[in-house]
Amino acid sequence: PAVGSLSISSLVSGFESGFLSGIVNSESGYSLDLTLEASGKFLTYKIEDAKLQSYDYSMDVNDRMLMNASFAFQVSPNPGGLQISGNTQESLAG
């Protein structure tokens, strides 16, 4: 099967010591849902069993922590891996 990748960056608040090391020590897969919405239309990417490939974090002089993470997952026509769904007529909030 083909392999997809997803990279995310996020500002971190409420950081707890040991949280990131707990993520790295976990070999389990993650389920991720990414929904894009505009003008009443939406597209959802559902990713199952995504494996953490790398992560890093940094803190600027303004005390804002930024975390970057990269995940890999299988792309297959079978259930699991990457699934795409959408609605071109209605908003999720509707």
Architecture overview:
The model has no long low-confidence stretch (mean pLDDT 78). It contains 1 helix and 5 strands; from the N terminus they run E-H-E-E-E-E. It has one domain (2-85). Strands 1, 2, 3, 4 and 5 form a 5-stranded antiparallel sheet that branches. By secondary structure, the chain is mainly beta. It has one helix at residues 19-25; strands at 2-12, 30-38, 41-59, 65-75, 82-87. The termini are far apart. Strand 2 (30-38) and strand 3 (41-59) form a beta hairpin.
Using the CA coordinates, give the radius of gyration: 16 Å
| Beta-strand content | over 45%
Helix content: under 10%
Number of helices: 1
Largest sheet: 5 strands, antiparallel
**Are there runs of 5+ residues with pLDDT below 50, and where?**
none
Structural class: mainly beta
| Counted beta strands | 5
Number of domains: 1
Give the topology string: H per helix, E per strand. Answer: EHEEEE
How would you summarize the topology of this molecule?
Elements: E1 2-12, H1 19-25, E2 30-38, E3 41-59, E4 65-75, E5 82-87
Antiparallel strand pairs: 1-4, 2-3, 3-4, 3-5
What descriptors fit this protein?
94 residues; mainly beta; five-stranded antiparallel beta sheet; 5 strands; 7% helix; flat
Q: What does this entry show, briefly?
A:
With 94 residues, the chain is mainly beta. It has 1 helix and 5 strands, in the order βαββββ.
